[in-house]
Amino acid sequence: MTILIKGGTVISSTGADLAEVLIEGETIIAIMSPGSDPAVSAEGGADRVIDATDRYVIPGGVDVHTHMSLPFGGTMASDDFESGTTAAAWGGTTTIVDFATQAYGQNVRECYDARLAEAEGECAIDYGFHMIIGDVNDASLKEMDLLVGEGVSSFKLFMAYPGVFLSDDGQILRAMQQAAGNGGLLMMHAENGLAIDVLAEQAVERGETDPVNHGYVRRAEFESEATHRAIQLAKVGAAPLYIVHLSASEALEQVAIARNKGANVFAETCPQYLYFNLEDHLDQGFDGAGYVCSTPLRTKHEHHMEDLWTGLRTNDLSVVSTDHCPFCMKEQKELGRDDFRAIPNGIGGVEHRMDMIYQGVTQGEISLPRWVELCSTTPARMMGLYPKKGVIQPGSDADIVLYNPNHPWTISVDNHHMNIDYSAFEGVTVPGKVETVLSRGKVVIENETYLGKKGDGKFVPRGLSSYLI
Ligand code: URP
Ligand code: ZN
Ligand code: ZN
Q: Which ligand 1 atom minimizes the distance to the CA of 189?
């Protein structure tokens, strides 16, 4: 089966060109100037021709931070692999990297095997895994080496959530030394969890139990301090470091300082931190629970959002991921009605990343190629998926999105495909729309219809990061 996509503007991380894309089976086999191969361009030259006139043709989105069915705070993230990856496809994302989780006291191998089995046959798009190491010990360190050989080449550690996931500095250093030896990438949830818990307890003692207090106690200083500490430990441990879900200017400053010295330090941010703030979203009575996530939304009275956009331009922020971790208001976020500490942390957004960041293009924050670079090419490179994913070039998987740049529409719980009973993005009118999505050569979204099925998505073993300095 051959498919020719013609008439569109192909966007890469380096530019935009009118070009035709030829696909055979699951793979891109040629990129051609329009009409340069008359035999292929002619009617009947390919089994199927997709007209991309006035559309951007972009590599499928790569979202390297999602949590399908994550157990958290006595409940579980409400999207499973089927619903979450289907929603991702609707939003133009064709690969996710989710997490297998080892919590304190658990065995890494057992946790990883169980997670692999949970996803098998369930996903609509391709997927890989990072491993969360919640209990750094001799056995888990050894497993890290084996996992790298199996295509799990990144490990998330936590400086937050004491008693569940938190690693102390000695454990972090040991894991970094291990990653330095096996080539893996260390991902860090950089917030000082012990300090946060002190402020959280004091807030509750004062009767300050509303969701907004989640934002007040998770202070920017705690993110900045942890980011600084992680960077220093990574320097000593000689490991590359990737800071996840960065939201505070002060933390970004720490990343910039390290990068200016040439360190292998990288960071991602997420759409919620670029568009939402503490006052307008988190501080609205219990409805604010829908915006409880960690790191938290930051105050609009400082310049976090502007600084994050600047970081996306300077490459001190190299990736936009979603940290998709949805919980319904009913029965899930509600667990914390009397105490913000019991609100499960997370926002669902896997469906909206491409549109929200394209909005940054139309607002003049970033360029069109930078949109593709932040949402597809760099995440693929960072996480060892490139050039199979993240680029439209011969030999790459035919993961392709036809994007209509002039189709404004309004996001709502009534039109999203994620399994959540509210939308954190409710009422946001975005300027463009994902129209057609190909996942390894199969058209999975077309004419507002989902044509794929669970099991279309396959596990992708990842190599080592090809983004390191
Ligand atoms: O609030 C968040 N980010 N929930 C998901 C877990 C994590 O720390 O990434
Ligand atoms: Zn985290
Ligand atoms: Zn996360």
A: 8
Q: Where are the domains of the chain?
A: 2-58+388-409+428-450, 61-382
Which fold is adopted by the domain 2-58+388-409+428-450?
A: Urease, subunit C; domain 1 (2.30.40)
Would you say residue 41 has pLDDT above 80? no
Model confidence pLDDT, tens digit, residues 371-418: 999 999 999 999 999 999 999 999 999 999 999 999 999 999 999 999
| Beta strands at 61-63 and 429-430: parallel, antiparallel or unpaired | unpaired
CA–centroid distance, residue 189 to ligand 1 (Å):
8
Best mutation site among 345, 347, 350, 420 for ligand 1, i.e. most ligand atoms within 8 A of its Cβ? 345
In terms of C-beta density within 10 A (0-12 exposed, 13-18 middle, 19 or more buried), how is residue 417 classed?
middle
Distance 70 CA to ligand 1 centre (A): 9
Amino acid at 325: C
pTM: 0.98
Question: Which CA distances in Å does 106 have to 100, 111, 135, 187?
Answer: 12, 7, 7, 20
> In Å, how far are 186, 313, 439 from 369, measured between CA atoms?
27, 11, 21
Ligand 1 closest atom vs CA 347? 1
């946060």: which residue's tokens?
Answer: 196
Question: Does residue 174 contact residue 136 with C-beta atoms inside 8 Å?
Answer: yes
Q: What is the pLDDT of residue 46?
A: 95
Dump pLDDT digits (tens) for 264-292. 999 999 999 999 999 999 999 999 999 99
Locus of tokens 């910039």: 256
17 CA distance to ligand 3 middle (Å): 35
CA 4, CA 69: separation in Å to the nearest integer?
Answer: 37
Nearest to 130 by CA among 465, 354, 390: 465
pLDDT at 35: 85
Q: Provide the pLDDT for residue 329.
A: 98
Pick the CATH number of 61-382 from 3.30.499.10, 3.10.20.740, 3.20.20.140, 3.20.20.70: 3.20.20.140
